Give the backbone structure.
Amino acid sequence: MDHYWEANGAQDPPTAPGSTQGTYPTDGHLPAAVAPSTPGAWWYHQITEEIRNAIVELGGEPDFRQVDQLANALVTSIASAIHDVTDQLAKVAYTGSYNDLSNKPAIPAAQVNSDWNASSGVAAILNKPAVQAPLGFTPVQQGGGIGQVTNKVYIGWDGGGLRATIDSSDEGHFVFEAELQANVANLQNEINSAVGNAWTPNNLQPLTLGGVGNFIIIGSALGAGQMITNPSVRPGGPTLAGTWMGCGEFSSGSDTFSLCVRVA
């Protein structure tokens, strides 16, 4: 496109109007005596110059014989701009392919689950803490019960029995059922030997007046642990049968008294 008028063209461009009506074109309406719009020389001139100047700015050479110069100039300009932009980009920018990357990082092996027992490889656990082996039994908790304190309890075999220590205090041996029964039997034997078998499980005597276990005061000196048979109660009391053991004596003036308990 370029300047072309078949006839009546001027050598100089028209002068730009001083103002515009700001209206829109109309075909007019003859019955109503409304004339159609008149473009005028300036309108034709500005349209031609707008298109021509665009062709020139886009690098084209105006040619009045061509009707596609503006379109071709736009296509060529856009293509050149795209080329200028994409030419600065890496190939991966427009292919989207990972393989077109340069300086690709090394990709580690696929992730695997950690293995506690693995000693090497990606499954191995680094800086693995030492873990106590399973006990194989259910432990008993020390302390924490009602009224219990936090002292440390040690229980162990000393070669002759099961022994307990609390912190640094020795609590001695545990006593089990068989040992307890033997100790009770020994104690019973000692009691029987001391009181003449009066206090055996089969020979327990209820506390009756003057019976085993009663205390009396006699009017004579009887040392602690000494025995007396059928003593008389002081003062002026009856004679009581049985064997009595002295528990202690005391004197008041010329009188001597002793406290006795019947043991048989």
Notes: The mean pLDDT is 86. Strands lie at 153-157, 162-166, 169-173, 215-218, 227-229, 243-252, 255-262. The CA atoms of residues 74 and 80 lie 10 Å apart.
